Amino acid sequence: MNTHKRYSAEVRERAVRLVQEQQGEYASNWAAICSIAGKIGCTPETLITWCKASIGGQANDLGRKSEQERLKQLERENRELKRAVEILRKAAAFFAQAEFDRKPR
To answer: In Å, how far are 13, 17, 23, 35, 81 from 49, measured between CA atoms?
Structure first.
């Protein structure tokens, strides 16, 4: 006998949001989860699973964003360094040429 209920994504998101918002109103995180799970009609273990999945997803999104920002920063720095190397290369060539053009004493 299969008694699994399927909950929509909206219900899951709302339940997780309720847990996050109402954690301070309960003595413990577990008490908040048990209370909200009873109101929604799921088990506390199911709600914990949803909360963990939500936190993991948020962490992955933040990780991706920070990686993208870091990549942009490194690309910007790489462009600056290439410009600096080009300037130094041209300056070195200029001074080397000036040294050859100078008359000996």
So the answer is: 12, 13, 16, 15, 47
Contact 44/36 with Cβ under 8 angstroms?
Answer: no
Treating both helix axes as pointing N-terminal to C-terminal, what angle do 9-22 and 44-101 enclose, rounded to 10 degrees? 90
H helix and E strand count, the chain: 3, 0
pLDDT in tens, 20-39: 888 888 888 888 999 999 99
From CA 35, how far away is CA 102, in angstroms rounded?
A: 89
Helix locations, 23-43, DSSP H: 29-40
CA atoms within 13 A on the CB side of 87: 6
Tell me the whole-structure pTM to 2 decimals: 0.50
